């Protein structure tokens, strides 16, 4: 009797490579276009920094750290970023936990409130802040709040920029923390910890926060990137953090300005890489 040959089964592994080739080709094409979109401007910027009438030169990169105002503006932006991260996390995380545990119906309201900064244009936002800072000292001159509003505008560390950056970072921090809270069973963790006698600070810092490390790291990185790249608010309020300094120095040292921009972009990428690697190791 002749051996029976099994009929080909639909979805057999032999036909899988032919079906997978097209998605791979499309994937390569999309990634290639995205790479060109991002890398061509970077390559052009790098060529502008090294192009010299006498040939290839890296003098622009050697002048970065010796440029006047580089260290002070960068340290100011990093200090503002650290303060902004601390304030926005201390405001957002407890509020989201309270809503998720005690008032779930208010979650849409909290989401709308945290998303509002995306709707209000930054120029309108900074116009309101400027009006308050301009007329505030006049109306508060005879009150104890006069020194407070003056301290908010201290050029050495403008607290008003921290408050403005906290508002601008709310949508990104809320999205990152919301994704982290959706990935864990917060109510079960809290009830288990409370049944074991843990206090609320212990529950938050020893139970909830360790499970939100990736979300907290993502929120912190987004806030850092926002502070290092925000120009409108700081410029219109007449402060000079790192982004404003880059634009200021471009008028006299164009190559150094572009080199500093590439340096800050590389620094941001390195921070993102560290955050990604750390998140993968924890997971």
From TrEMBL:
It is a multi-pass membrane protein. InterPro entries: MetI-like, MetI-like_sf. Coiled coil: none annotated. The chain crosses the membrane at residues 28-50, 70-97, 109-135, 155-173, 215-237, 257-278. Residues 74-275 form the ABC transmembrane type-1 domain. Keywords: Cell inner membrane, Cell membrane, Membrane, Transmembrane, Transmembrane helix, Transport. CDD domains: TM_PBP2. It holds the Pfam family BPD_transp_1. SUPFAM superfamilies: MetI-like (SSF161098). It is found in: Cell inner membrane; Cell membrane. Its main location: membrane. Belongs to the binding-protein-dependent transport system permease family. This is ABC transporter permease.
